[in-house]
């Protein structure tokens, strides 16, 4: 039970740097690299937080520790908080999968190319950009959502 915090940290840090790398690629306007890193991040996120965390970490803290030391007052609080963390992992996985599906189905280039050339030039002149994640076209003058 003493090393569970290190395992939780390791599981969470396994995918975090990939998301940061995808953000940097997006800011640098390397869209293909950004898409690849985001998909790779999604796969690592799902494996670490929906497979490794519940099978290894939760299993050892809930069932193996019960057999070794038995329940004690802080055991209940500790495991309830870890289960709450797993609920958050499921919710975050849902949100990430929605973003990944939108990115695969539409893609940043295809959303912008639906406009006519005049409106595209207008959007370029007003310093517009497509939001990475929600798919909205934004500028300082207007905001248009794509659903």
UniProtKB/TrEMBL annotation:
Residues 1-105 form the TLC domain. It catalyses: sphinganine + octadecanoyl-CoA = N-(octadecanoyl)-sphinganine + CoA + H(+). It is found in: Membrane. It comes from the Eukaryota. Keywords: Membrane, Transmembrane, Transmembrane helix. Pathway: Sphingolipid metabolism; Lipid metabolism; sphingolipid metabolism. The chain crosses the membrane at residues 33-56, 76-96. PROSITE patterns: TLC. It is a multi-pass membrane protein. This is Ceramide synthase 5. The gene is CERS5_3.
């Amino acid at each position: 039970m003493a090393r569970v915090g290190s395992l939780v940290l390791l599981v969470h840090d396994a995918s975090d740097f990939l998301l940061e790398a995808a953000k940097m690629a997006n800011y640098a306007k390397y869209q293909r690299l950004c898409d690849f890193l985001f998909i790779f991040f999604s796969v690592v996120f799902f494996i670490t937080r929906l497979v490794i965390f519940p099978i290894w970490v939760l299993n050892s803290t809930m069932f193996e520790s019960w057999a070794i030391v038995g329940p004690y007052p802080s055991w209940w609080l500790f495991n309830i908080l870890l289960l709450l963390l797993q609920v958050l992992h499921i919710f975050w996985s849902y949100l990430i999968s929605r973003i990944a599906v939108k990115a695969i189905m539409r893609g940043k280039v295809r959303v912008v190319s639906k406009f006519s050339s005049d409106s595209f030039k207008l959007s370029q002149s007003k310093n517009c950009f497509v939001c990475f994640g929600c798919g909205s076209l934004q500028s300082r003058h207007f905001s248009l959502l794509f659903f």
